[in-house]
Amino acid sequence: GDEGEKPIIGSPFMFATLRGNLGMLFTAKCKGESVLGVAYAEEGHGISGPWTIEPEPLLCGAGEAMLFRDYDGTAVMVMHKDTIVNGDERQVPQFVKTDLQYDKLKLKGHYKF
Predict the structure, then answer these.
(1) How far is the C-alpha of 106 from the C-alpha of 78, rounded, in Å?
(2) Per-residue pLDDT, 4
(3) Which residues are within 8 A (CB) of 57 and not within 5 positions of it... i.e. 6 or more apart?
(4) CA-closest candidate to residue 91, choices 32, 42, 41
(5) Neighbour tally for 43: CB within 10 Å
(6) What is the pLDDT of residues 53-94, one digit of tens each?
(7) Is the CB of residue 62 less than 8 Å from the CB of residue 29?
(8) Does position 2 have pLDDT exceeding 90, yes or no?
(9) C-beta of residue 28 within 8 angstroms of C-beta of residue 37
(10) Which of 2, 11, 51, 72 could form a disulfide with 27 if both were Cys (CB 3.0 to 4.6 A apart)?
(11) Under a CB-based contact definition with an 8 Å cutoff, are residues 11 and 34 in contact?
(12) How many separate helices (H) and strands (E) can be counted in the chain?
């Protein structure tokens, strides 16, 4: 990217894996595209960090994510997906199954209601 351009970062959402690793979902917007990133606190340091940002975005064209468990206990991430609808850019909700069993958040596939 351009050296002078700084991404806008926001929408943090904290979570923990089943192994107790503290993670944070965040949205970065750079060059007009939303990017969903994830960072993890160094083991044993908690919310004050230090934090390590994963080198690759979790998803491009998506952001403002949160996690919840459905009635069956499935971990689900809800976020917006940048989508063109009738020629206009919209932020359409998307639901994705996740796996929090290990030390990092893993995406499993679209959630079906």
Answers:
(1) 14
(2) 54
(3) 28, 35, 36, 37
(4) 32
(5) 11
(6) 999 999 888 889 999 999 999 999 999 888 777 888 777 889
(7) no
(8) no
(9) yes
(10) 11
(11) no
(12) 0, 9
